[in-house]
Specification:
The structure holds two protein chains of two kinds. By secondary structure, chain A is α/β, with parallel strands linked by helices. Chain A is about 35% helix and about 25% strand. In chain A, strand 8 and strand 9 form a beta hairpin. The longest helix of chain A has 17 residues. Chain B is mainly α. Chain B is built from 13 helices and no strands. The longest helix of chain B has 27 residues. Classes of the chains: A alpha/beta, B mainly alpha. Chains A and B meet through helix 1 and helix 3 of A and helix 2, helix 6 and helix 13 of B.
């Protein structure tokens, strides 16, 4: 049974006002202790706690810069929380940036192996999904061509097919997307839906409220890094849209 | 607590072995992709460069070309490995910023893949060197069996240094340029073009302090003098190598989680 427990996490980012500190600045600072600091702290996520249990379909809403993506990245371990704790049980699939780690010089097939291993698939698993990924992406003719010659659509189709080829326990989505033509979009939506249905837990960030209402059974509202509401989709989205906490 | 962290570190590294393998392959394949001679360039490139140096410097030092060539190559190959590992590891996190900010991977795989790919390159350069030695009428001795140990110690030393540089460069970007110049200077302070005992005075003391000097000797002894390195030299190199890798890993593990915030 998958489970996610988030206990009072905060994420601090340090914003440097001029540029990244050079070695010279660092040495100089040792001698002038009273100089005003050159950076300020920014809390992207502030004291957020929640627990997600098996079967939950959680949507996250909030304005731009509210910390939604940062929170997802913390769940995926990209950022270590400055404070607080996250404990996760279950295999988590990060579908944050589809196509991250594709190498333009590599052929489609080589990228399946490269990107597949980055996504955490074992070699054996990749071998077993390889042909299905290629046929779903409809890139059979170009699979041994470097992906830098791919059209944007082909590139997106391959990346999408690969990222969605394995069923994770916990599915994390940042704005569901589907590239390609209308025909592929329909196929992709069906595939996405089946991933969501079979996942033990699903967490997604989206600005599409209708989509959230149809997919989720629970919605979190983040505002300036703080969790301001946690409840049923209709209730939380309604309050978010009217601005009522 | 510390040992628990080490266990997690090792198990995550083992879990990412297929990514590591892919990154190494990427390093090795991409460089010469779509070139006519392909991977052969790995042989040709160092071979040509070292040949030019051998001809120029043997004329300059009025040395016998054949013996000087083998002497020079035996020093150049470990030096090139060390200097490439250190300079390339330095930018390994910066160059993979896109990946590091999007997906969780044990970050050590970036400098580690660079070092392993370069190790494979170096081993191939050595294969080329053996061919040269045979072609020049030299003979190979049993003492060459010591070379894998030389490689292991050099690898640990270079990797430790590379880890320190990879972390430090994230904080101080100037280092990626500083290190290139420093390596140029260090090259001349390392007995590669000359014999260590040919020096005298202050320079000799400086070269003796250079931590790379014993590693070069570890390669030269078996190749040039057909002798197994002395216990003293071996102990010296082992101490330097294990200390460097320990310091490198310590700094790396302490800073690993902070790197993503500084990219």
């Amino acid at each position: 049974m998958s489970n996610i427990r988030v206990e009072g996490i905060s994420l601090r980012f340090r914003i440097y006002h001029d540029r990244s500190p050079s070695l010279k600045d660092y040495v100089a600072r040792i001698f002038e202790r009273n100089r005003p600091s050159r950076f300020s702290d920014f809390w992207a996520v502030r004291d957020v706690s929640f627990e997600i249990c098996a079967g939950d379909r959680v949507g996250i809403v909030g304005h731009n810069g509210a910390g939604k993506s940062t929170l997802l990245k913390a769940l995926c371990r990209v950022y270590e929380p400055t404070e607080g704790n996250i404990s996760i049980a279950g295999r988590l699939a990060p579908l944050l940036e589809i196509g991250a780690g594709f190498h333009p010089e590599f052929t489609g097939r080589e990228n399946i192996y490269l990107n597949g291993s980055i996504l955490g698939y074992s070699k054996l698993e990749i071998r077993s999904i390889e042909s299905e990924v290629i046929s779903f992406a409809e890139v059979e003719e170009f699979i041994d061509t470097p992906v830098k010659y791919y059209s944007t659509g082909m590139y997106m189709r391959l990346a999408f097919s690969l990222a969605t080829a394995m069923q994770p326990d916990i599915l994390v989505l940042d704005e569901v997307f589907a590239g390609g033509d209308a025909n592929f979009m329909t196929k992709a939506k069906v595939r996405m839906q089946s991933l969501i249905n079979k996942a033990n837990i699903m967490i997604m960030v989206s600005h599409d409220h209708i989509l959230l209402q149809s997919l989720c059974n629970r919605v979190l509202w983040l505002d300036h890094g703080r969790l301001v509401a946690d409840g049923t989709p209709d209730d939380v989205i309604g309050r978010y849209l009217t601005g009522k906490r | 607590m510390r040992s628990a962290a080490t266990v997690i570190f090792c198990s995550e590294l083992y879990g990412s072995r297929s990514v590591l393998q892919q990154l190494i392959a990427q390093q090795l394949i991409l460089r010469y992709r779509r070139t006519l001679l392909g991977y052969l360039w790995t042989f040709i490139n160092p071979f040509m460069m070292m040949s030019v140096m051998a001809v120029v410097f043997s004329a300059l030092f009025k040395a016998d070309l054949k013996t000087f060539a083998v002497f020079l190559f035996a020093g150049m190959i470990p030096w090139n490995f060390f200097s490439s590992v250190v300079t390339q590891s330095g930018t390994s996190f910066i160059n993979n910023e896109g990946l590091i900010k999007k997906i969780y991977l044990p970050k050590i795989i970036f400098p580690l893949s660079i070092a392993i790919a370069l190790l494979i390159d170096s081993a191939l350069s050595f294969a080329a060197l053996f061919l040269i030695i045979i072609a020049l009428g030299g003979s190979l001795s049993w003492s060459l069996l010591f070379l894998p140990i030389s490689f292991l110690l050099l690898f640990l030393f270079a990797m430790g240094f590379g880890l320190i540089m990879s972390v430090a460069t994230v904080y101080f970007r100037d280092l990626q340029h500083v290190i290139l110049i420093a390596m140029q200077g260090l090259f001349f302070l390392t007995p590669i073009l000359y014999k260590q005992d040919a020096l005298a005075g202050k320079i000799a003391a400086l070269v003796a302090l250079n931590p790379i000097t014993p590693f070069i000797a570890l390669f030269r002894m078996p190749l040039i003098e057909a002798a197994v390195p002395s216990a003293h030299l071996f102990a010296q190199a082992t101490t330097i190598a294990t200390t460097t890798i320990a310091v490198g890993l310590f700094i790396f593990i302490r800073q690993e989680k902070q790197i993503v915030f500084r990219l």
